[in-house]
C-alpha cells in the first residue's frame, strides 16, 4: 500500500500482488513501453486503430490519475521476476453510455511478448477479487468486439458468464466491423467463498 496526499486526504493507493505479478500505480518509465504496445498492429487489431505516442501517454496519464484519485483502477502490470512493465489490467467505470452502464468493467492489454503465459487471467482474477472484496461490488462486466477470441477466453477462464444479447458500441460508426460487442458478467455471490 502506498500513501499519497490527495486534496487534503491521505489516499491509499491499492496495489495487488499475485504469484507472478504486481498490479501497481503507473510510473513514468512505463510510458514508452506502453506506447510500444499501443503502436503494435497485432495488439491493437480489435481496436479502431493503433495509438500514437501522444494518445498512449494520455491513456497512461488517465489511468494513473484515476488510481491517484480513487486508490484503484486500471493498474500497470509488472512481472515480478524481471520487474518489467508488461501492460495493464484493472477496473474502470465506462464513460460511454452503454446499455448496462453505470457499471464497473474489467479490462486488460498486454505486450505481445507476454501473451500465452496466463498473465492476463492471473492479473484479472486478482482484480476481480479486489472488486468483490475491497470494493464490495455485486458484479463486474467485461466486453469486447465479437471477434476478439483471446479476450473472450480470458473472460471464460475467469468464470464470467456471457449475456445472450450483443450490443453496438456507440463510439464506432454504424456498419464498422468492430462495432458489435459481446458482454460477460462476473457476480460477487459466485465468488463469495474467496472472501469468507
Ligand atoms: C487479451 C489478451 C490479454 C489475452 O492474453 P493471453 O495471453 O491469451 O491470455 P492469458 O494471459 O489468460 O493466457 C492464457 C494463455 O496462456 C497459456 N498459459 C501458459 N501458462 C499458463 C498458466 N500458468 N496459467 C494459465 N494459462 C497459461 C494458456 O494455455 C493460454 O493459451 P491459449 O490461449 O493458447 O490457450 C491479449 O491477447 C492482449 O493483450 N490482446 C490485445 C489487447 C486486447 O485485445 N485486450 C482486450 C480488449 S477488450
UniProtKB/TrEMBL annotation:
PROSITE patterns per UniProt: GNAT (PS51186)
Pfam families: Acetyltransf_3
Full protein name: GNAT family N-acetyltransferase
Tree of life domain: Bacteria
Domain N-acetyltransferase stretches: 21-189
